[in-house]
Amino acid sequence: MSEPLMQVVYVSCATKPFTEGELESLLTSVRFNNQRLGVTGMLLYREGDFIQVLEGPETTVTELFQRILSDARHSGVFELLSKPINQREFGEWSMGFRRIDQQHIPGYTKMMNNPDDQQLKVETASQALALMRNFASMKG
Ligand SMILES: Cc1cc2nc3c(=O)[nH]c(=O)nc-3n(C[C@H](O)[C@H](O)[C@H](O)COP(=O)(O)O)c2cc1C
Predict the structure, then answer these.
(1) Contact 40/91 with Cβ under 8 angstroms?
(2) 9-53: pLDDT as tens digits
(3) Among 17, 6, 12, CA closest to 112
(4) Could you tell which of 13, 18, 30, 93 is best to mutate to test the pocket of ligand 1, judged by most ligand atoms within 8 Å of the CB?
(5) Is residue 13 a contact partner of residue 75, using CB atoms and an 8 Å limit?
(6) Which structural domains are found in the chain, ordered by start?
(7) pLDDT in tens, 93-124
(8) Nearest ligand 1 atom to alpha carbon 12
């Protein structure tokens, strides 16, 4: 049997705002790596905040998340969700990307102000996933 899959959702803050060029080069290397690793997902960027969903084989995602955690380009990495999954939700995306200037994630600010509230974390993760699923379904 192949290794179980897992999904991780986290939020973080860019250490300094990314320029368009910096975002592009981040995405190019991320997509290259993820294709090699068998990782899929979606990254959202909103005024210096990142939200990312990663999915793939358990060990790979766990190791990748550790590398992402120690990446100096962002800080305050805060895990919202980490769970086993039966199938990928973003299987066609080595890393989808959206800038979200207009949309916001309901409950996000409240959650950031109450980081120990597990229920708020679960709710915010599901709001973020709903938004990302929506983007993933809008091809092209
Ligand atoms: C917001 C953000 C998201 C990232 N997402 C990924 C990713 O999905 N896959 C990946 O390989 N690297 C990702 N990276 C880059 C990693 O942190 C790291 O630079 C990369 O895996 C190379 O690691 P290495 O320098 O230890 O070889 C991300 C970085 C940031 C700041």
Answers:
(1) yes
(2) 999 999 999 999 999 999 999 999 999 999 999 999 999 999 999
(3) 12
(4) 30
(5) yes
(6) 5-137 (3.30.70.100)
(7) 999 999 998 778 888 889 989 999 999 999 99
(8) 1
